[in-house]
Amino acid sequence: MTAPATDQPVDLTVPAVAVEDLAVRFGTESGVVTALEGVDLTIEEGSFLSILGPSGCGKSTLLRVVADLVPPAEGRMEVLGQTPTRSRKDRALGFVFQDAGLLAWRTALENVEIPLKVGKVEPREARDPRELLALVGLAGREDAYPHELSGGMRQRVSIARALVTQPRVLLMDEPFGALDEITRDALNDELLRIWQATGTTVLFVTHSIPESVYLAQRVLVLRANPGRVAEVVDIDLPYPRELTLRETPEFMSYTARMRQILETC
Amino acid sequence: MSTPAPPASKLRGIDKDGREVPLSLGVRRVNPVVAALTSVAGAVGLVLVWQLVVTALSVPTYIVPAPTDVVTSLVDDFDLLVSNLWPTALESVSGFVIGNVVAIVLAVVFVHNASLERSLFPVAIVIRTVPIVAIAPVLVLMLGNGYAPKIAIAALISFFPTLVNMVRGFHSADAQAIELFRVLSASKWEIFWKVRAYSSLPFLFSSLKIAATSSVIGAIVAEWIGANAGLGALIIDATFNFRTPLLYSTMVFASVLALAFFLLITLVERWVVTWEVEVAP
Questions:
Q1: Closest approach of A171 to chain B, Cα-based (Å)
Q2: Domains with residue ranges and CATH for chain B
Q3: Which residues in chain A are closer than 8 Å to B177, comparing Cβ atoms?
Q4: Between chains, do B180 and A101 touch, taking CB under 8 Å as contact?
Q5: Inter-helix orientation angle B197-225/B244-272, to 10°
Q6: What does the pLDDT read at residue A224?
Q7: Does pLDDT of B161 surpass 70?
Q8: How high is the ipTM of this complex?
Q9: Once rounded to an integer, what is the mean pLDDT over residues A229-255?
Q10: Cβ pair B48, B39 in contact under 8 A
């Protein structure tokens, strides 16, 4: 387990993320705040999980513990069978933030190249940044600066940037939350396509019920104060999914169910 | 990279011939040539009024010289002015460089050491409130009558805006970009050079532009306290000898020096900061 994962073949019996009795606390001026408590969760490699919940339920915190940006206070967290720190150092994680977080002084292509040029460890596998920009529908815009791109295009660049190291776990923190609905729908479809093309595990934080159901195989619903698991719902709808799916009674019954769970949160 | 054109108005209207035309929101485009001529006309008009008033009221030259007297002095005393320009230019440029380098280094230290920032930053702000005119004699007493006290004062006056702006600039770096670099296991050094340093550049240049003009002021103020050469010494000399036209032409030289320095920094900024800045420094 201490050996770097680079030397090991991908072991499908090891879950992408395994969480046991996890608690996260933050020290603030008014005392210690419990962001997450008693979280148990297993996420299989290659699966798509949405994390849904009211604001302040610790959705983003959970993602940040996986990414090794926040340390757990109690419990166990394993990412790809090792500590989050180890997985981060192995360059096995990709992160997409709510704001694209692009560097304003770099072109779209140069922004996608960042993960290949930063950090000591060479990424296990690198994808061609140009190819990735084409994958997210930005062929021909390689030399555009962020301020020349729309919000949706910037978010596409940040997705391409997260994919450039071929991450085994892709963490997405409300990536489409700041976009208009039309752009959001288009990016949802593209994300599903990318997920199926790359086979990466996706953890997708959102506060949109339809989005969570539309994308994921499973939805983890969190309740707030303190953040706990309310329920994990399997979404039994076949892929590839299309936007018209949202008008079907099956889809509606899932969203109604989510709303019901959230009301008790 | 060329700067992108300002976004065209997205509003459309129909003109009297039924064609679709962009609507402007009452902002009328002014021809740039006309705009330039208007400001030149303003300046010329002001000088004319000055000339007329001084001649009409027959104000003595030693009290207020006419623009023509100043031009005469600029021509006659040109060599004297130039020979006094160089010491001031040397002092202000050296002070500018030293003050800004120290400020940048200190800001870098502050960014990497929060407790040092908390303890020293307020001290720096307090020192800043002491007027430079009050500090100048102290430095002249300490450093003598040569270039040193002038450079020190020009440095001091350049130092504070850059320190304050650089600390702000380093902290202005996008929080998510820094988190991204952490996920990528980037070192503190990489975060500094690849994110913070670039984010601080617009802030740096806005303080360099302030420092460019104020370092000239600093050098001149220091020369007032005691100097044998320089525009400041010339100002004192011209004032006490009632050579008022020379005093005015010295002022012209001083402002041309400051303006040239400012323009130089602006040009360098255009060349370096090619991207759009979201948060105005």
A1: 11
A2: 12-56 (no CATH), 67-272 (1.10.3720.10)
A3: 101-103
A4: yes
A5: 170
A6: 86
A7: yes
A8: 0.86
A9: 92
A10: no
